Automatic annotation (TrEMBL), chain A:
Single annotated GO MF: ATP binding
Coiled coil ranges: none
Protein name, entry field: ATP-binding cassette domain-containing protein
CDD domains associated with the record: ABC_DR_subfamily_A (cd03230)
Keyword ATP-binding: yes
TrEMBL record, chain B:
Protein name: ABC transporter permease
Keywords: Membrane, Transmembrane, Transmembrane helix
Transmembrane segments: 12-31, 182-204, 225-258, 278-308, 362-386
Length: 228, 392
């Protein structure tokens, strides 16, 4: 369980978040939704310690980021986007690396096969399309076997078939008890996969439970179009 | 840490900088060979000509002295000394009369006899106006220690039946070529400068390619990540230099022969006694010294890369530290006796090995210790920074 308590963040005199407190339970998928530039990625970076947060702000399964950083990070996986993949290394290199560093028991081959990555498993990242790179990212998340996964806009560049495939994987991970925080602009997908949705507005989070309502409508409620 | 090391190594193996740096080492070491390209090998003739020139100069001095009338006691003494000197030079001239077919043992015997005479004469009178043989590319010096070195070298060559290969030889065999390049022709500071370009590029790769966030979310101590990087630096950069030197050895060897790593280099560990170091021994000591110098700059680059995000800054910082290893800085009065405790006093590894540095020194072993101690302090400082902020 990820617990965030009174998280505030200021960047260059601009308040980005103010007194955020929330929890993400095991086996729960939480959507993180907001217009571009509102701070979704910043929040994910805060949750994994890439940006400074208060000493008692972040706790993951009882481990505080401050003081038990390595153990905290062992239970978490976050890769901002596919641009951060090592361009000259192969898919295999990436997956092997994640398996070794996270000491994961998840086997690579079945994951590669299930995601249909066999055709480019041995190719270097710079030779892959955006969709393929997104698959590599997803495979890395699965292989890390981390308890908490922070996933930033995973559906970018995917065709509808791949989007369905990704959603199935998210739900499988949820069934295994993993916690997922997924930032996304795809409101229909958010509606299909997330248990809760955090709408980020006015430096705070508005927690909306997913009861099957029209998520696009909720989005428009929080972020009405200009002139509407 | 093993996974991190392997990943960093794989990433770095693909870097174009490796090829550029290896090429730079190769070109630097081949510089002398390129400058002699197309020239006839006149080394032996030039050598023998130097003997003849010295002999003629002494003969002229003798004639001049004979013309001094009336001859004072000092003129008579000078004439006696010059006649003795000429005797030994004549022996060399005789021994080398056969030109290229001259017997090497006879030549060595004559040159050794002359060197011994010069040593005796200098020991007797340090101001004795000896006519030194002006070998091309080798500075002449009337110091007693230089006479001792001459005797040591020629005795070794005579005993081992080896032909003298001057530093300025047009086509020296490969062993001599590589050693001479590292000892005389390519400044150690220049070699280190090439290394620091590689290091600056290597230690800022993550920042440049935008992968620093990935590294910083790894569930491992970030000091281990830094140490893995340092390990890769050793795995790649030093072998790059070694391969370049090997390539030079092969290229030169195929054209000019391989030579012997048993060839002597004269040096003085204390400024009083002359000793012989063989080329092979010199290269082993050079490798050890180079590893120590490299360790220092690896640690320095790692430390600077923690506080500077771009390659240029790391490069400038390394270069500034490198410049403190230059003679004007180390020889300055401001440093005085403190210079010998600075790692930069030992960047000139050739001077360190042959004890020719113009500033105070703790000797070879002491220099290595100072360099490694400096590297350890820098690694410690880097570790402290990483420990405090938990990020690279």
């Amino acid at each position: 369980m990820l617990t965030v308590k009174d998280l505030s963040f200021t960047y260059k005199d601009q308040q980005i978040f103010q007194h955020l407190s929330f929890t993400v339970q095991d086996g729960e998928i939480v959507g993180l939704v907001a217009p571009n530039g509102t701070g979704k990625t910043t929040l994910l970076k805060l949750l994994c310690g890439l940006l400074p947060a208060g000493a008692d702000t972040l706790t993951l399964n009882g481990l505080k980021l401050h003081g038990k950083r390595i153990a905290y990070l062992k239970q978490l996986f976050f890769l901002e986007n596919s641009n951060q993949l090592y361009q000259d290394l192969t898919v295999r290199d990436h997956l092997t690396y994640v398996k070794e560093v996270w000491h994961s028991q998840v086997e690579i081959t079945p994951v590669v096969e299930s995601l249909g990555m066999g055709g480019y498993y041995k190719k270097v990242i710079k030779d892959l399309s955006l969709g393929m790179k997104q698959h590599v990212l997803l495979a890395m998340y699965i292989i890390s076997d981390a308890q908490t996964m922070l996933i930033d806009e995973p559906l970018n560049g995917l065709d509808p078939t791949s989007i369905q495939e990704f959603e199935e994987v998210f739900l499988q991970l949820k069934e295994k008890g993993k916690s997922l925080v997924i930032s996304s602009h795809q409101m229909d997908s958010v509606g299909r996969t997330c248990d809760h949705v955090f709408f980020l507005k006015d430096q705070t989070l508005h927690d909306v439970a997913n009861t099957g309502q029209d998520m696009m409508g909720v989005y428009n409620h929080f972020f009405p179009k200009a002139g509407a | 840490m093993g996974a991190q090391y392997r990943l960093t190594l794989k990433r770095s193996l693909h870097s174009v900088t490796n090829i550029v740096i290896a090429a730079a080492f190769f070109l630097l070491l081949m510089g002398t060979s390129f400058s002699h390209y197309g020239q006839l090998d006149t080394t032996q003739a030039t050598q023998y000509s130097a003997y003849a020139t010295a002999d003629e100069a002494v003969a002229k001095t003798i004639n001049d002295l004979k013309k001094v009338k009336p001859a004072s006691a000092s003129v008579k003494a000078a004439l006696k000394q010059k006649n003795q000197e000429k005797y030994y030079l004549d022996q060399i001239t005789l021994a080398t009369a056969g030109g290229l077919s001259a017997d090497v043992n006879e030549v060595n015997k004559a040159v050794l006899a002359h060197a011994k005479y010069s040593l005796r004469a200098t020991e007797k009178d340090p101001q004795v106006p000896l006519q030194l043989i002006k070998y091309q590319g080798k500075p002449t010096s009337h110091k007693l220690i230089e006479r001792k070195k001459d005797v040591a070298v020629y005795r070794y060559l005579y005993q081992h039946h080896m032909r003298e290969i001057p530093v300025a030889a047009v086509k020296p065999p490969a062993a001599n070529y590589v050693a001479n390049a590292l000892l005389y022709h390519v400044s150690p500071l220049l070699i280190i400068a090439v290394f620091i370009v590689w290091l600056a590029e290597f230690f800022t790769t993550d920042q440049r390619e935008g992968n620093l966030s990935v590294t910083n979310t790894l569930p491992m101590n970030k000091t281990k990540v830094l140490l893995a990087k340092m390990g890769v630096a050793f795995t790649l950069a030093l072998p790059l230099f070694g391969l370049s030197a090997l390539a030079v050895y092969l290229v030169v060897g195929l054209g000019a022969g391989w030579g012997s790593f048993q060839y002597p280099i004269a040096y003085s560990p204390d400024g009083q006694q002359a000793e012989i170091m063989l080329l092979g021994h010199f290269l082993v000591l050079l490798l050890s010294a180079l590893i120590a110098v490299f360790s220092f700059f690896v640690a320095l680059s790692a430390l600077v890369s923690l506080v500077a995000s771009d390659m240029g800054t790391v490069l400038v910082a390394d270069a500034l530290v490198l410049l403190t290893g230059s003679a004007p800085v180390l020889g300055s009065k401001a440093l005085s006796g403190a210079a010998k405790f600075l790692p930069s006093a030992y960047f000139d590894y050739s001077g360190l090995i042959l004890h020719t540095a113009a500033w105070p020194s703790l000797g070879y072993g002491g220099g290595i210790v100072v360099l490694l101690a400096g590297a350890s302090i820098l690694v410690g400082a880097a570790g402290l920074i990483v420990h405090r902020r938990q990020l690279l």
